[in-house]
Each structure stands twice: as C-alpha cells, then as structure tokens.
Write a structure and sequence with these properties.
This protein is mainly β and 474 residues long. It is built from one helix and 25 strands. The protein has one domain: Porin (Beta Barrel).
C-alpha cells in the first residue's frame, strides 16, 4: 500500500498555524518575564557578564562599536571580558591571535534562504519543506596587532586587525573557502580615531542578541562591512560622551548578480564613494547592570551602477541602457536604554532607498523590471532580562517592509519574532537556544496592463526555527 502524502496546501496551513502559535507563545513569554521579579544571584556582579563586541580587545575598541554590554550575550566575536589574552612581542609590535569555534544546529519547518542561516523564508510555491542544518563555517580566526605610537593629534596608538571566517565559496558543506571579514589599520587616542580598511559600517552599529547567525539582516537590521577611510571624534563632558563619525566607503553592488534578471547586466561602481556619518551621545551616568544609555542617528548616501545590454522579459518598454546610476541613501536611529539591574531594551529604525548594499530592503536594492531603486522602512527592538550572572533571555521583533510600488516581482515584507536563552558555561564556552517565527511575503504584478506576465511566486513563506548554538572562544 502506498503511503498517502500530505498535500502542499495542508502542509503550508499547518506551518502557518504553528508559526502563529509560536508568535503568541513568544509574546506570552515576554509578558511572563515582565511580570517576574527574579533577583540576580551569585557572588558575581552584573559587570562580570560583559561581552566585548565588534573588536575582540576592549582597549582597542571605541564605545560605538560595542553592540551591547548585555549579560550572557552573543557578541562578535564573543570574547569574554575575563579571558586572559595571549600575546607575542616582535620588536615594536605586540601580536594577539584569537578565534571562535562556532557550531549551530538549526531546524526550520520551512526552508529558509540561504539555508545555513536565515535571511528570509522561501515561498511555499518554491520550497515549503522542512530543513535541518548543522554548520561550523561561521567559525573564525583573527590577529590583533598593537604597534608603536605616532605623533598625530597629541600622540596616537596604532594597531591593525585581520580576521577571516569560512563562509566563502565552497564545493560542499565540509569543504568551505575562507571569507575576509576585517582587515584594517587604525590610530587612536581618547579624542580621535583614524581607520583605513575593511570593517563594520558606521551606520546602525547596534546588534540584536539573536542566536541566528545573520542577526536579522534583511529582516530589519541594516549595516554590514566594507572598505573605508574613517575619522572619529569623541567629546566628553563628564556626564556624557558625544561621538562623531564620518567615512568614505566602497559602494558595494549586491543586486542582479544571479538569476534570469541578471542576464545581460554588468554591475559597476560610480565615480564617487559612499559617504557615511553618525552622531551619538552616551550617557555615562545612566549605566545599570553593565548597560549604558546611548542615543544616536546615522545615515549614508552613494550610488550603484549598471549597464543593461538588453531589456527585461516583464517590461517591453525597457531596452538596452548604458551607465545607469541609481542613488542609495538611508536615515537611521538607534537607542539602548538600561531599565533596571536586570532589564534593558535596545533597538534601531531605518528608512531609505536602494538598501541592499547595507542588507536592507530584504536584500533588494533595485528592481530590474522597472530599473528604479526600491524604498524600504523597518527596524528592530529587543528586551533583555538577566536571570543570573550566567543566564539571560532576549525577546525581540524585527521587520523590513519595502515599498510594493517599487517592484514588479519580489519580496514585499519580512519579519521575525524570537525568544532565546543564552548561558555562559565558562569564560570560554557559551551556549544558547532560540525559537523564532518568520514570515516573508511576495508579489507578482506582471499581470498588470503594460507588462508581460512572468511566472514568479506570490505565496508567502512561513517558518518556525529552532536554533541551538555552541561557541568556544580562544
């Protein structure tokens, strides 16, 4: 007797139902947390839980680069503050190698993209089946270099950083290639910092404490890494520190790299760089449980370029076009607020156009069917509760909502709600478990007058993800 298979419609309905249940459960868990009054226990203070994020050595990292000094959090590269660094001195230079062995086990009730972590959920018309991924390619190794002082701006310490992971091109899952993450030189003191090379963007520097490796990119969190020349200025008044940052950076062109829309398209940079800027105030006296209040705004402007050798199948009005230049810009706001010894909140907002180069617009910057930039608005918010010096929980929501009028085919909304527990086993070993509910919406407007119909998915993708991670730092 043949086994009866579950029809796709019924399966998608079950997935949607489960996703809804998970979302309500996460909201319920948040209400339970808000109503709880669990004291911080143990002989350790909350300050012993601080993770240094962004750069691995605290004394080489300006405050803006730290996504959150949150108890038992996963911060890049998640080096505990109490770990004793091992250094090697060679002449005037001090070298410190570091790394993270990072393994994740992810089960998704419906397949996500790109699969080994989640950026969005594939439409049920394209995929819809469950998937399991066990991945260690996000592990990384790096080298910090502290050099001699130079006589700039009253004396500045110099240094450099080099870091790679294994998420480059690969033949199979167990034969990965290396990927460059950071490589830069810097000079800094208490008032200034000068940097040249590849590292994090200036815009939107906060990072949600989600277990998912992609930290809600393409789902409400914007900002990535690129080559840049950067200047920073720190102005302290005792109670506050005002941080000013400006950078000229590489315009990275993400769109139209693969797929049928990329046929006959040449991506190219323009004749001026991306310009990024940020202004933020740290309220040094408003600091509770290791968290310090920060309010900031940032933004960028630049352009991406394309040569179109042909038209597009969906739009007969389009023909070959050379040297097309499309503006990219964003305005962003950020806030981190400690509430009590146990509670803190943080979040970011963004709006802009042609945002795929900072992982906004659900990684869609330009519509090839219309040859216009795609506008998008979104952001994320997160509530943190510290159960103890070793255990914390995070509940968050993130959304990226492109303007439907700026595209004929593609993703029109992507959101996720998540809840997790993160436990620090030791100074070197941290583990975490997260449940998240994802929904990605799609549309196809090529059946409207003036266009030629092209088959593309319209059914949403919905998935519940169970993500378990283990990270060992050295």
């Amino acid at each position: 007797m043949c086994r009866e298979t579950q029809p796709p419609v019924a399966r998608s309905a079950h997935i949607a139902s489960l996703a809804g249940v998970v979302r309500y459960a996460i909201l319920g868990a948040m209400l339970v947390l808000v109503g709880s009054n669990h004291p911080v226990t143990g002989d350790e203070t909350m300050e012993t839980l601080v993770d240094v994020a962004g750069d691995p050595i605290a004394d080489m990292t300006p405050l803006w680069a730290e996504p959150a000094v949150v108890p038992a959090s996963f911060c890049e590269p998640c080096l505990p503050a109490e770990a004793k660094p091992t250094t090697l001195s060679i002449g005037e230079f001090t070298l410190r190698p570091y790394g993270t062995v990072w393994t994740d086990l992810v089960y998704a009730t419906s397949r996500t993209v790109p699969g080994r972590f989640a950026l969005w959920v594939a439409s049920e018309e394209d995929q819809g089946e469950p998937a399991l991924e066990l991945d260690a390619r996000r592990s990384r190794i790096g080298l910090e270099v502290a050099g001699p002082q130079i006589d700039w701006c009253g004396g500045m310490d110099t240094g450099a950083r080099f870091e790679v992971d294994f998420l480059g091109n690969f033949t199979t899952d167990n034969q990965p290639d290396v990927r460059l993450r950071h490589v830069y030189w810097e000079a800094k003191n208490d008032r200034n910092r000068i940097l040249g090379g590849q590292t994090w963007d200036v815009v939107s520097p906060l990072i949600p404490n989600t277990v998912n490796f992609s930290i809600s990119w393409a789902a409400g969190n914007v900002g990535f890494r690129r080559n840049q020349f950067r200047w920073e200025r720190y102005i302290s008044s005792g109670a506050t520190t005002w941080t000013l940052q400006a950078a000229i950076a590489q315009n990275v062109i993400q769109d139209l790299a693969t797929g049928f829309s990329a046929t006959g398209v040449t991506r190219e940079t323009g004749d001026w760089p991306m310009i990024q800027a940020r202004s933020a105030v740290t309220f040094d006296e408003i600091s509770v449980g290791g968290n310090t209040m920060i309010l900031g705004v940032s933004g960028h402007i630049g352009e991406t370029g394309f040569d179109f050798a042909t038209g597009h199948p969906a739009n007969p009005a389009l023909g070959p076009e050379d040297d097309v230049r499309l503006r990219t810009w964003s305005f962003n706001a950020e806030a981190r607020v400690p509430l009590t010894e146990r509670w803190s909140v943080q979040g970011e907002f963004f709006t802009g156009s042609n945002l795929s180069n900072i992982l906004g617009g659900i990684a869609q910057g330009v519509c090839p069917c219309l040859r216009v930039p795609i506008r998008s608005t979104g952001g994320w918010g997160e509530l943190t509760y510290a159960w103890s010096p070793k255990l914390s929980s995070h509940v968050g929501y993130s959304i990226d909502d492109p303007n439907d009028n700026d595209s004929l085919i593609g993703r029109t909304k992507n959101d996720v709600i998540y809840a997790n527990c993160i436990y620090r086993v030791s100074d070197r070993l941290t583990t975490g478990l997260e449940v998240s509910s994802w929904k990605t919406e799609y549309h196809n407007r090529t059946d409207e007058p003036g266009f030629t119909y092209v088959d593309a998915p319209t059914a949403p993708g919905e998935a519940v993800l169970f993500d378990w991670t283990v990270r060992y730092t050295f």
